[in-house]
């Protein structure tokens, strides 16, 4: 430390030198020292350094002054508080100096100090005392109005300080406001502008009383309207306040908007611009409060969008000789009307982006007006008009599948159909703009076309001839910038991808020359984009002979394919493009093929390009032209086999797909030799594993193909590693879906090859041997189900062998019985087993087993066997249900299996008898039985909806609450995410079923909510129109009802039971689902009220509402921002709650999980721009920072969310 002090005193001495270079170097060295973390100054050194730096601020040399100011930053964090106050005092005094240079340098110094202070959320005492000291001096400097330049600097610093440290100055806010308000009428516009900035930062952190004073003052002044100049300022100020604190100004909009509308009609272009900018800010920041005025704002914007009093537009609709250079004929520097038009376009953009529910209205009024203004003469305004229309298209993008699903059942004109009808008008307007000189305009056109095609694929099919010349013009135009060419190519690519190939046949010859030129472009991004387009264009194989352009396309691509020293993206796209060329046009390139395939072989050996090459080879191998790959296969297949042991998952998957297609398409050419197959088989065992089911599925598909194409190669599987891996995989609880289907296909293919040692009985022994050996029961029931499915697959492949399963044997263990019953069920699905006379008895005996799993397997087996022969078994099952009350639950499960798996035609004759039986049991007191009955009723209704749905509706009037709950649950099972014949009928009657939300019985209301949730999740179109009537009842169920809370005595303890908890949980689950499917139909502020209540509810409900809050922060951030102060309090309460010391371990775990969830919600809320400016949120942040446990949770969640974002960017 002594040496550091000595070094610094040396530097201080040099700073007093008369040589400016010495002073400069010494100051520079001091700054380096101050930036070191290790530096520690004693009191004396601190005082000397501070004194010297302040002295150097008055140095004659400007460079020394600048360095001295830079030293203030690191110095503030290294010296004690009283020294910082000395610095601030001196700087404030210097600011009032007569010397302009000293004033400027001091104001920069003050900004530097303020920038270095710890943020308000850290709760630093230093920041608070420094800000208070500066504030008094600044307010007096602003109020004096003696020197405008001092005033401007003071306002600038004040705005900076309010922005960074506003929360610390709450006590000074009234005095700051009283000093700022008079400056709004200053004769200097610059002073007014900076005052508005300062007021904007003040309203983010001031208390409500100060905010009310400010708004009342603005309203009074606007009402008085003394002169236009100040009125403009007050309108600007109102817009600035709305931008910074929209959630606070909302309640005053009823008074503000009529005034702004009035001033909008005054003949003053500047005032109009400010008024429209104010509207834009209200629309973006106060979505709820501005709603009643949106139509007024739209009509004003549409009126002023065409406001161009000094220019006469020709009637271009009639004049097809549209002039390119009309904008050059006219120039008027005093014309301000373009600013009004630009503000109108931006305001319409805001309206469109924030009011999704008004889309049909926008297509009626806003869309035609915007399209008509594409002819705008001012380039900046035109860009904003395009941007507004782009926002409209983005809003129209079908957000969920139901929007463009034919099953969506939306009534009347949808936004998509309205857009479809306007396409000719849009294309006509864009056609003219595509030949414009302006690069910016053409870029806007391409962005627009790209978005239009994304929203409405195929929309431009009839307009391709009009658009292609415009795209070619930009590709050939010498004045086109690189970005314009890239945009033109990207647009052409999207158009090619989303339209039928026949639409491009006449244009291929015109498109090829500019594309070839772009592939040869020296800029790699243009080359890359052009290769992508060429790849797509090659798919458009025209009806005529393609030979005129094949050479050009091939030569430009091969040049890029051969080049080794080019960008990685270009390399990959050249490989993909050449793959597509050979796949589609290989028959026209007999001489070039061998050489090109050898290049592919080289690229296959290169680690960087191998994945792309494998995909290209897969494409070529799958070509309908049967391209001869024999020259490269002997070398390529061993390389492909070696890829199967690489660690790159995508490479494994693509290689398996390539090998599979090679086997399928090259079986007759003797191209794939046994040696090649052996090389691949050697690599397969490690791939067949539960650790990666998709890779296992692809490996199994390859083996199935091999069994069909090269059955002789399967001999070596007997007793090998592949089969043992398969047996291990069969027993995995994870085996399901595609991987299980691939395994069944393989076993079927395997036994049909009749390979020695791999016949029906051999494979059956392999599969069932471990169960019969009784060495150990399989770990999971799923394993028995998988083996049973494999047994059934073998039996259907070899029907002559007959099912060899053993249920009767008295020595059979439960696990053997379980496997035997499941196998019988699976076989019965495909084979009629009615020829086995003892079957019924055997299965009914199994119903008496002591093992629950055997009982359930027997139930499944009976249902599945019945599917194979309904006339034989269904009456028997129905009779047993009636006569065996003890076995009723198991028999009903059998019936459920029958209804779920049989064909509609097969079941139709039995519907009435099954329905009658089910209704007898729908009032059963056992909830489990009622649920099975409800599922059967629902699935039965799907067979004959016209008859059965009205009957179901009739039982809603039943006096039994059990019957009503069964009927409502049954409706849940009629809803699926796929289109079904019942949907139109269901849409008309689901409202009646959901009226049970008003049922007096708790359980009926709960199942009604579960059914509603299912509809909202799987088929939102069923309930969208009913939300206005359903939501009040849904919200009603989120309330805590005291009458449902009771105390239960458990020995010496009293335990509180809340009977309404399940109901509330179901209601909040529905609310969460609605966020994804019906957000545009919800009043978000009412929704937020109930989310707010949920934040104070039971553990389960809190967890749900924290999730909702995180979701809402992304979906409707402006609404959440308006409620932020009310949301912070419950979050803070959750995070600061302490569990009693003597609580059980689970209580501590639950509280920890709650804290983590609450903190996730906090991190999501802080993701909203300007959320941290809320004083309550800032205070909560400082509380988190000061608490070690909370700070650790907060940091880990922030890290997780950042890494998740990075991953999503990587995978996109």
TrEMBL record:
One Pfam family of this chain: TIP120
GO BP annotations listed: SCF complex assembly
Boundaries of every TATA-binding protein interacting (TIP20) domain copy: 1022-1184
Keyword annotations from UniProtKB, A to Z: Acetylation, Nucleus, Repeat, Ubl conjugation pathway
Highest rank taxon of the organism: Eukaryota
SUPFAM superfamilies per the UniProt record, alphabetical: ARM repeat (SSF48371)
GO cellular component, one term: nucleus
InterPro entries: ARM-like, ARM-type_fold, CAND1/CAND2, TATA-bd_TIP120
Compartments, record wording: Nucleus
UniProt keyword Isomerase present: no
Family named by the database record: Belongs to the CAND family.
Record protein name field: Cullin associated and neddylation dissociated 1
Organism: Gadus morhua
